[in-house]
Write a structure and sequence with these properties.
single chain; 246 residues; alpha/beta; two-stranded antiparallel sheet; 10 helices; 8 strands
Amino acid sequence: SVKGEPHTVFDRLNLSIHKGEKIALIGSNGAGKSTLMKMMVGLLKPSQGTVELNGTSVKNVKPEQLSRQISLVYQNPEEMFIKDSIYSDIAYAMLDENDADPDKTQEKTEELLKRFRLSELSERDGRLLSGGQMRRASLAIGVALNPGILLLDEPTANLDIATRKEIMRTLSDLKEVTDTVMIATHDMQLVCEWAERIIVLCQGQVAADGTRDEIFGNAALISRVGIRPPEIFTMGQALDRRALCY
């Protein structure tokens, strides 16, 4: 534990997420991205104010009860693994007291393994996989919970170029299996290629909220918040301040 005065992360934060959105949550280290996501899934409770899911406060709801509606895939994918094989982890995530049909669970598990290109690795322990395989497996577990809203914390961090491209393809596929996706990331190329809405956090406040042109085209905002746009965008701006190249 850390001793000292309680640290205020958010002060008068007001934000609404809507069904069907593909959102990138960006900002410098310490801006509150991971904290916001943990509050949304009930792992952290705000000292003041409310977090509402579909119009209902989540204050007294346990995170495991929320996981069917909103689920978080952690920045460190190994935290998603609790069984001794990926197959078992995905099947376990699907367990529901009201739906315990083993044939249906097996069918859906095999379908997810195939979708995330994990079929040949199904009996492997998730903690012993390569970085990219581990990421794909953690995404499969998040999707297996069948939430309407899926939150991803830094899904492309510390990956080589080939593995990152693979994860990008996987993220593009998510729109087929879940309604709303929010990604917290420092990967600006991912933001530009994938997100339809970009929320910028700065010192516990929403500094900006809009499309990529509205965010990256605002030079004063980019400078103030410390965002580093993709190199091709910066190059285009150097040639012509009106250029918005991604």
